[in-house]
Prior knowledge:
CATH superfamily of chain A: MazG-like
Helix content of chain A: 55-70%
Oligomer: homotetramer
Largest interface: C-D, 66 and 66 residues
CATH topology of chain A: Helix Hairpins
Order of helices and strands of chain A: HHHH
Mean pLDDT of chain A: 85
Largest sheet of chain A: none
CATH architecture of chain A: Orthogonal Bundle
CATH class of chain A: Mainly Alpha
Shape of chain A: globular
Number of strands of chain A: 0
Low-confidence stretches of chain A: 111-118
Number of helices of chain A: 4
Strand content of chain A: under 5%
Amino acid sequence: xKDISLKEAQKVIDSWINKFEEGYWPPLSMLAAxxxxxxxxxxxxxxxxxxxxxxxxxxxxxxxEELGDILFSLICIANYYxxxxxxxxxxxxxxxxxxxxxxxxxxxxxxxxxxxxx
Amino acid sequence: xKDISLKEAQKVIDSWINKFEEGYWPPLSMLAAxxxxxxxxxxxxxxxxxxxxxxxxxxxxxxxEELGDILFSLICIANYYxxxxxxxxxxxxxxxxxxxxxxxxxxxxxxxxxxxxx
Amino acid sequence: xKDISLKEAQKVIDSWINKFEEGYWPPLSMLAAxxxxxxxxxxxxxxxxxxxxxxxxxxxxxxxEELGDILFSLICIANYYxxxxxxxxxxxxxxxxxxxxxxxxxxxxxxxxxxxxx
Amino acid sequence: xKDISLKEAQKVIDSWINKFEEGYWPPLSMLAAxxxxxxxxxxxxxxxxxxxxxxxxxxxxxxxEELGDILFSLICIANYYxxxxxxxxxxxxxxxxxxxxxxxxxxxxxxxxxxxxx
Lengths: 118, 118, 118, 118
C-alpha cells in the first residue's frame, strides 16, 4: 500500500469531497462529526484497557478504523480552512522539542537510541 | 518544508518519545490529552464561526496549531497500539467511497473535476 | 415523577455504585465514558440539524437518553472527587451573571420578562 | 446554599438566557461549547491523575468549576430541545439498574449498605 504524505492525503480527500454538490459541511458540523469519532475511540480504549465491558467484538481492528475516521475528519477541517497539516505537524514537533525537552527525563545515550531524531 | 508521509510522521514521533524514560503515557491519558486538544479546537471554531466571542487573538494561526496538536496526539495513540495510520486512512477513504457514493449528490461531469480521484 | 435535586441525584448514584465491588472506575476511565456519551450526543445533534443523515431512528427520544447518560457520567466524576454539583452550578450561574451581563444585548424590559431571575 | 432541583436549574438558566436578545446559540454551537468544557475537564483530570504536568495551579477548585460549566452547557442543550433532565436522569438510573445489575459484582449484604437505593 502506497506511503501517502499528508499533502497527498489532503488533496485526495479534497477531490473526493468536491465530487459532491454538498461539498464540505459547515465547520461546526465537521467538528461534531470529529467528536462523534473521538467518542467511538473512547469506547474502544475503555474496553481495551479493561474498564468498560465491550458491547461486541471491540478490538484493534476497530481501533484502526476509528483512528482513520478521526484523521479523515481532521483533514476535512484543515482543508476547509486551507490549513497545511504538514506545516502544522512539523511546527508541533518543533514546539514539543523546545518546550518539553527538559520537562521529562531524557534517557542516557546508549547504542539503541543513537539513530533517533535529533 | 519537507513533504512528510504518515509513516515518517509516526516514526519521527516514536523516536522522539523514546528519548524519554517516561515513554508513552497510558492510553486513557493520551486519550484525555486528545480530548483537551479537541476542546481547544472547538473554542476556536466557535469563535471563528461567530457564536462565542474570542477571549484573545483567536484566529487561523491558532487553528493550525490546534490541528497539529490533535494530529500529534492521534499519532501517539496509533504508535502505542502499533497501528499503521497509512492503512487506516486508505481504508477509511475506501469505506466512504463505497458507502457514501450514492448518499450525496454527485456533481455532473465537467472539465473541472475530470482529474479527480477515481 | 419526583422532582429530584442535584444533591439527591448525587446520593442515589453514589448508593447505586457502592452496591458493587468494583465501585467507581478510575477517573480517566469515567472521563472516557463521558466522552463516549458526548460523541453520541454529537451524532444526534448533527442528524437533527440536518448535516449527517441519521443511521436509524435518531430523534428527540435518543437525545433525552444521551443527555441523561452525560449527566450520569458527570455525577459519577463529581462523586468520586467529593464535589457538590449544587455549589458548582450556583457558582457558574453567578459567574456568567457577572461576566457576561454586558457581553450580550439585554432585552428591554417588557411585561413578558418581569418575572425572570434577577 | 439552596438545594436546587434539576427542574429549577433548567428554569433559572432559561430565564437568564431569555434576558438576552441573542437567546440560545444554535445547537451545534452549544455542543462545541460543551466539548470545550469537557476538554478543560480532561486537562484537569490528567493533571490530578499525574500524567500531564499542570500548567498552573490546577486543582479541585478548578474541577468544581469545570463540572459546573459542563452542567450549564448540558442544561442549555436540554432547554433548547425542551427536554426534561429530571426524566432523563431517572430513566438512565432505571436503565443502568436493569441492564447492569448482573454485569458487575454485587457486594454481599452487610449492615453498611442496607439503607441503599433498591
